[in-house]
Task: structure prediction
Amino acid sequence: MKPLTRRHLLVLGAAGAGATAAGAAGLWLTTGPGAQPLYTQELDLTEPHVLTSRDRVLEVQLVAAPAQVQIGRREASVQAYNDSLPGPTLRVGPGDTIRISLHNGLLAPTNLHVHGLHVSPQGNSDNRFVSVAPGETFDYEFTLPADHPPGTYWYHPHHHGHAADQVAGGLYGAIVVEDTEPISITRERLMVISDLSLDADGNLARADRMQQVMGREGQIVLVNGQIRPQLRAAAGERERWRIINACPSRYLRLSLSGQQVRLLSRDNGRLPEPEGVTEVVLAPGNRVELLVETREANSTLAAAPVDRGSMSPMMGGAIGGGTQSGGGPLELCSLTVSPSMSTDLRPVTNGRPLRDLRKEPLAAARTLTLGAGTDAEMGMGSGQGSMMSFTINGRTFDPQRVDETTAVGTVEEWALVNSSSMDHPLHLHVWPMQVIHDGDREVTEPRWQDVVNVPARGRVTIRVAFDDFPGRTVFHCHILDHEDQGMMATVQAI
Ligand code: C2O
Ligand code: CU
Ligand code: CU
Result:
């Protein structure tokens, strides 16, 4: 696959008349109430450049810097890794080592996080406390255990105070950990879904205070940097789609009309058996792998709006309507399926049975309360009641503090309680989470995720096995604006 370079994107710019609008907000492209700008001539989906490990090692140079790309019909000034949006796809196998030399060509500090990988949080591995100043270079090295679950992961900046701006600006890329036994398919596709907002000059629009409080949703939703690209297939194919929600705040309720879709994998690897689905919901940071068995039909991959709550009336009602992504479904890609071709597909082999932490002894239980509200609402002082706080157990993030201490080799149960009126997708680094209770519902099958949505005023119980990797890392809301405003805490495994 060719990299999505500027030249590539210029070709995209030749696409027919798009629905451009310089609206009241001065935005030159708008999704309006739920509709993506339409292009009369659709372009085929392209995929980021793929870098594959050799002899169990992948060496990569990543430059995070301002970049000029073509988005739809317009030239845009974004931020990107290696001038490409998304950045290159890193393809490795379990047991491999990834070395990334990260150069910061931005004006703000940055760093790199390998979301979902089960690797050490220390030193120059997945260490969230690293800060790479503008002009500096930092050499990361991530070593995957030999039994690392195959699946779809991703990388993105994680510098406190800059994470939402940098991810919204275009800094993200996919990581694929290959299967140990291949699955019988006719084609694999990778789709990195992201969103961004641009001003009239094609520069990244700043998120205002209200958007930061709610969690910004970009006005343009992209698939691999493209607006509404086209996919083509023949009937009778079996495709594997690896989908990443790289939006800083937007939830995606995805459906693909007219096709048979099965869920193969969620966040941290295969389900024991693929599950028939009509829709999947991805909170920011979540990934799914879908098996799409094609029928002759024209279909659309659509993202329906998700109600993720709103701020309380004490905010003055400035954010109305509950959900930000209001309106109808967005069309992300179209799929055109031509008459059948003969394929030689074997049945999909089963995944390994999933570990069930309910069968293992518990060493500790904790309650983590996610809070968002004015100081007055949260009982934090009596000022004007207008300062918003985003907290975990009543405190905003402090990188110097150790909030929770766990013992390596033990299993814990965490009750995630949301005391606010909006959803928060909680993400824990390094160790995946098994969802035990989702509200009042007991989740009977072992369900593993690394981002778990905690609904407004809701409660979710998870278990975590701190099997290995001592060190200190973080858990946080993956609405990156909330993380930047303090909804993040540290956990130290010793
Ligand atoms: Cu995808 Cu801590 O982040
Ligand atoms: Cu992460
Ligand atoms: Cu949040």
